[in-house]
Structures are given as C-alpha cells and as structure tokens.
Amino acid sequence: MGDRDSPPASVSAQLAQRYGIEGEFTDARGEVRRTSSATRQALLAAMGIAASDEASAKAALDEADWLDWSRALDPVYVVRDGALSPSIEVKLPRAQDSVSWLILLEGGGELKGSAPTAALKMLETRETDGVACARYRLMLARDIPWGYHTISIGRGSLERDPADTAALIVAPESCWLPPAFEKGAKLWGVSAQLYLLRSARQWGIGDYTDLARLVEMLKPLGANVVGVNPLHAMFLELPEQASPYSPANRLLLNVLNIDVTAIPELAQCEAARSLIESPSFQLALQACQDARLVQYSSVLALKLKVLRLAFADAESHRDAPRRQAFADFVRSGGEVLERGCLFQALQEHFAQHTPALTDWHDWPREYRDAHSQAVARFAQEHPDEVLFFEWLQFIGDEQLAAVAQTTKPMSVGLYRDLAVGAASAGAETWFNPRVIAGAVQVGAPPDIHNPAGQDWGLPPFNPLALKQEGYRSFIELVRANMRHAGGLRIDHVMALKQLYWIPKGGTAAQGAYVRYPLEDLIGILALESHRNSCLVVGEDLGTVPEGFRERMIRANILSYRVLLFERTQEGFVPPEAYPAAAVAVAGSHDLPTQHAWWEARDIALKESLALYPNAQELQQAREGRCSDHLELLTALRGEGLLDSDDLDAVDDMDMESLIRAAHAYLARSNAFLVIPQLDDLTDEVAPVNVPATDTEHANWRRRQSLTLEQLAVHPRLHAITEILERERHEASRAKSRPRYVTDSAAPVVANR
Hints:
By secondary structure, this protein is an alpha/beta fold.
C-alpha cells in the first residue's frame, strides 16, 4: 500500500539510485534519514555525473542506458569457479544468430567457444539506436583457471568480425585460510604500533629490526601472529602528520620504518659513517632516543641525511648483484612504484622552493596532472631524485621481507593493516583523480555516541570509475598490502559494500550511503588472498549492514571482535559464543588501554579536552563505566577467573589480577585468533589516539614505556603469554570443556 501511494521518484533520484546513492537509511536511533536533492547532486557530481536539474538528470540517465547497451560487454566481469560453468551477461542484436568468444589467459594460452544466440538464456530486451537488442546469459568454458584474463566476443568468427573486449577475473569462492584453521586450532599473537616500539639501538622510532626482534621474542613463547599498524607511505614534507590511517600513499611503504644501521650500503659509505659518529649528530640522535614522544621531524631529518649519503655512494660503488637486485625491484614495481616515487620527488621539489606548497592541489597548474608534459619533463630532468625514493622503497621492502622470514614457521606470521583511505593531499588522488572521488570525504552519520557524525577527511574510490578501469586500483592496493604478510586487516571492511559520503564543505549530517560492488570486490580479495597465502580480517565495528557479517563468513573473511564491545543486555558475551571465524582483541588504537579503561582515565582525558558536549553526557559516561566494571567482573567471575568477593572490591581491584583474568577470558574464546595489544603487556595508560582530536592531544606519538630489552624479561609478558598459550591450547584441544561458576564456596561445573 505504501509503495502504491508513494509519489514516483524524481528523475534525479532514479539517477542517484542507478549509481548506487541510497535514498535513505535508518540511523542508530531508528530514525529514517532521507537523502536531500542537494546531497544527491553533489555526490553525482563527485562521480563525474552532471545532474543540476531534472532535465540534465534525464539526459544523464538516458546516456547511462545508452552506454550500457552500446557495448556487448561490460568493462569487467568477476566470476567464481565452481562445479557449474561460469557465465557472463552480454548485449547483442536480436538478429544476430550466433556469438563466439575468446579468452586470453593471464599466464598465456587461450580458450575459445561459440553458441547460437537461440540457445542462450534471454534476460531482457531493449531497442538501442533503432536496433532491437537483448541481454543474454553466456555460459563459458568450465575450469577456467583463477586469474586476470581478457575476454573478447564477436559475431560468428572472431577472426572476421571486430571484437568487444573486457577484463575477466576468475576468482575462488572464498579467501585463503591457514591449515591450522581447518584443523580447529586456536592461536594467539600480539599487535603493536611499530613506530612506538623502543629499543636500545633504534633512532627514536620503531623500525623493521625492532619488529623482527619482537617476533623473535614472541615466537618461542607460542605466538603465531604479530600484528602491526598500517605501514603506508606518509608525507615526508609534513612528518608531524603522523596518523597511519591518513597516509599519503597506501601502495608504498613508510620510509621512517627503515633501520638505517642495517643497510648493506652503509658499511661501504665512509661519509655516512663519519656523519653518524660526529658529535652533533650523536647529540641530536640521543635527544630522539631519550624523548617520551616520537620526534618525527627530527628522526626523519637524521635518517634522510644518512640515507642520501649512502644512496649517492652506492650509485657509484654498488656491486653487480646488488645493482641487479635493485633493478629487478624497480622493474617489478612498475607504474605503481614509479608514479609514487615521482610524486615524492615533486613534493620535495616544491616544498624546498615554496614551503607552503605541500598539497599537490596548490602546485603550479601544469604539475597537478600526473600525465602532463611538465611532469614527464620533471622526471627526465630529475632522474636521481626519483631513483632515490625508489631505492628507499627497495630498502624498506627488503627489510620488511626479512621480518616476514623471521616469522616462519608461524601459522600466520606478519599481520598487516590497510587503512580505509588516503589523504586528499597525497599521491593516490594525484595520480588517480578519476578513480578517487576527490570532491567528497568518507565518514559516519550522526549517532548516539557521535551526535555530530564523523568526517574522516579521506576521499573514497569512485565505484563507477573503479569498475570502468577493471578494478585495477583496488587490485594494486590489495596486492601491495598483502606483500610479505600472512594476514591483512581491512579497516572499516563495510566499505566493500557501502561508504558514507560527505560532500566537501558539508557536515556529516548532509551525507549519504553509496553502494559498492560487494561481490566483485570480495572475489578480488579472495583471489589475492590465495595467491599470497594471506588470510583476510575485516574490521566490522560500528553500523554493520544487515546480512553483511554472514556474507563475510561465507567468504572466509574473519570478523574483528573487541572484548569491550561484545555485549548483550545480559552482559559480556561468553567466550564460547564468539564466532570461530574471528579475531578477538581486548582493544584497539582508538580505545583506552585496559588499565586506563578500568581507572576511567579515558573519561577524565576526554573531559579535559572538552569532548563531552555537556555535563549530563559526562555524568552518563561515568555511571556507564561503573556499570561496565561490574559487568566485566561478573563475566570474569563466571569463568572462575576471579575470586567470589571481587565484585565487592571494584575500587581497589588489583590491576595485575584483572588484566590477567581479562586475557584469560579472551583466550578462552572460540575465535580462531586472539591478539592482545602490546600496550596491555607493557601496562600503558596513555592512549595511542584520542578520536575527534588532532593537535589537542599527542596522538600517534606516545612511545612504549618498556624497551624491547626490558620487555623480554618482564614478568607480565611471560605471565600473560603463558595464560594465552595454555588457554588457547585448551580451546584447541576440545570443543567443550568444563568451566567453574562460583555461586558460593563450592564450585559448580558447567559445560561450555
């Protein structure tokens, strides 16, 4: 009845729906929020679709229909292998009596076939340019290998008729999982913010050697995974913009992670060694090492001075095998490496001559186009600058590969993190402006916890352009971040299905959800996952679309479950209720540490930063935390992990006992992986990041309170890892084991 009585949608609304812009959504309060015409127009414009009024919207809709039917093939098809033959949809004149197809396989070779159109299943008919056409389902050959292929179709013989061509991606049904998962193993590891690691030998920031040492420390204790923050390239001209979740380029590595002292070229560069040994350099280095916070600008300046000297010397003295290894790396890196390093060279060039020009949108006009003659001329005139940045990537990749080698024979090993987007001023928007919707930013609509909503300041992929280019940019992104990894965490994995777009200059309340080709993107993830033997974890916190988690399970994408959020009206979710296809964690970089959470230090900090809009919300936060404490103690007591009188000792609870019990609770979960934070092993209280702040708080800078040398012999590390190892082993050994619930002095045995 409601649909029958509703007025017909405007043409602009139909156009928006055609391109995936949702007309409405239900917010966290259960209220329906409708997309305004102004928002529709702004989001369509960000996709490259002009629709300022109904007439232009009608023209755009007609053009979309014409483009759809003017080509026999779509730009790209992602199909799954399986028992039945894969199929694609094709558009052909109804008068055409047969169709032939040719698949050029990625690895060489070809597959051919043909069929009379009368034998094809007709899905839809349409008249285009006066020609009666139909959309058919074309069945292809069975057993097409996984990979990135090309398909062409023609009328009759392909040798005689012009062919229409498209990308054909054949993917497995689901992502790769390690054999340990199939065997029912329950594993554990530790996650760390790499840049916050401390050691006696580093230069004031965690590096790849520190990461390798952390792996070597944890591996004999039973760890099977070590997680790190995103390792994406940052802004070298703006080193204080330190958030790894707002990088310059997600396709390249952050050169600040390089251990300068481990570079082979340093041993033969007398100038670099002399510089390091000089009193002034040692004084500056000592200041970086002693600082409580990471001194990004100072550390970068020290590292680049030495790296430039080592590179210059290596160019004249590099031995043949080393030179060949570098040449092979550059060749295999291809356009991704070349354009990323060219951007860094240009950014450095303009920052040196005009320091204000750190955003490429402010560069001279002729350099804003990555494919312009001016950019090509710069590359020809400054080859050494571009080569230097390529060499830095070579060194970083080499050291990361050494870390990955150290993780063997862990079941997972290195577990990397992929940010949901890159900063608008970075390389990705410069060399790929057509695929990146630069006129919008992603975020989240207003909700109970964030009444104003969230604007993350990150431009998204344009799903229309992404499909037109055959998903090349997404493939490159996934491939780059699975390199040297046994696991990849995808930040805000709901972006595979939808993202909340906010027009630049607008508020979060003025945004709308935009759909993405979920099935195609999952197929690509699955293919790259198998090729790299890399499991996939989806950070699925926040508003999760209905049915999305179920689709993730079928795709073997592990869910991301945070202890503090796994709750129902009855209290904390019991360990056995965690899904097997999941990673269970105690917290994240955006949450307080366990110590800070228990003492409500995060609430006090947010109060000092004026992050509560009024006294009522502050009081609600305090009261809610007291309730949270009681619920957690009840859950821990229910597992027999705390004494029966601990509920009466909230205020003077022993922190060591609490943290050990919380880790044991998490370790008992049914989740395949349990990955506590290093911050909880070193008993940190200051947060890594306070959401909704920038310069108000020292985000992404607080170094670990313990060095790696101190951590190696620290009682808490060994106590908690022993708990993890024991509880995970017990969880692996039996699907059900007894637990103890203490109602009185006598324990009662209950089955899990």
